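Deliverable D5.2: sample structural annotation.
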Amino acid sequence: MSHDRDSLILEIARAILREGTICDHCLGRQFAKLSTGTTNLERGRAIRLVLDMIADVGADDGGEDAGARDTSADTEAAGSGRCWVCNGAFEELDTWASRALEALDGCEHETFLVGTRLSGLLSENEELLWEIVGTDYAEPLKSELNREVGKLIADKTQKSVDFTKPDVVAILDLADAAVCLQIRSVYIYGRYKKLMRGIPQTRWSCRACHGKGCEECGFTGQMGVESVEELIATRVIEAMSAVDTVFHGAGREDVDARMLGDGRPFIIEVREPHRRSTDLAALTQEINEYCEGRVVVSGLTFVDREMVGKLKSMKHDKVYLATVSCAGVDQDMLVRALDAITGTIRQRTPSRVVHRRADLVRVRKVYSVMLESFSEDFAVIRIECEAGLYVKELVSGDEGRTVPSLAGAAGADMVVTALDVVAVKDPVGYVTVRPGAIVARQL
């Protein structure tokens, strides 16, 4: 059985060599799954040597081994032309490593990985060879290129290869003879307070063109209103030499509501940062000075990408201070109405947002409602409620879409004239492990 397997390997090697000039890397790679602990280059040289020795034995014996003679001729020709499989790519390992190092220059990283984008010709060449000899023992061309160039880069930079979460991936584009970078995003957690009304949380796309750009928005695609996202991102992009950011908030407040108290949790995803480390205390100060009087951030800390999903999935109960018009309603009547809206609330999607959200009836809880102050025309009430409750509609009733409502219980028209979020509560299982750092814990 062993002799049959040996003969099969030699026959495969002869078949490969009969196809044309092939380098030792590409020859050895067809047997990469055999004899681990050695390189494809060494395998290729060894296979070629064995075949040459077999051919010499046949010649000394006066044998008529045509296959051996053909193989010997092919091995002699191997160094006389460019490999038809890789088109000489393995002759240019140093060149590719130099290109990658040039691309990586100025990109801060501790770990890296090399990837390869094959040209159509090289993909076809490899597929053709595999059709002839099979893939039982073979390794893909790009895998070896990645490894060999990666070793050269590691030797030059003393940086580590990371196969799961590299800071940067250097892509060898063989068709364009260029190297491009895929830089892993950095994620920064924090809390923000919004001190002014009229500021949206995220970029506000133009209503006319929906972000495409038109005359109405000056071809910017945006409404021309600064957002919390943009105010924070301006300094983050500068500090980390990034291309862009994406803002992930733990819910959002209305554009006309302030966000006070300890602030709302958020994560800003920093895309393609050429600087991965920065002094977050200094960055906090820079953001707050830039956003003076509008937005304040605190508790900035680096987190993993997985934290975005956890932040989005968590349900943060809220505490609001709402200024409510109450003309024609006396204080005793208002207090009784507040009692009526404590407990279970059924809310159909508000008419003001139904154009962008599913028209559903949602059940939410109001934990407590307290009267903070009262005057002839206005009252300030404090509402503690479950995540996802629409406070404005809890007051107005939204033409019967929210039941019970403050207006319905009081028997008078009532609306929120000013709204502040004063607390976004961390859910059970969401704990602070040290100042500025967070984890999610399953209970």
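Annotation notes: The first strand starts at residue 111 and ends at 117. The chain has four domains: 2-80, 89-183, 186-313, 318-424.
The annotation will be released with the project's public dataset once the embargo ends.
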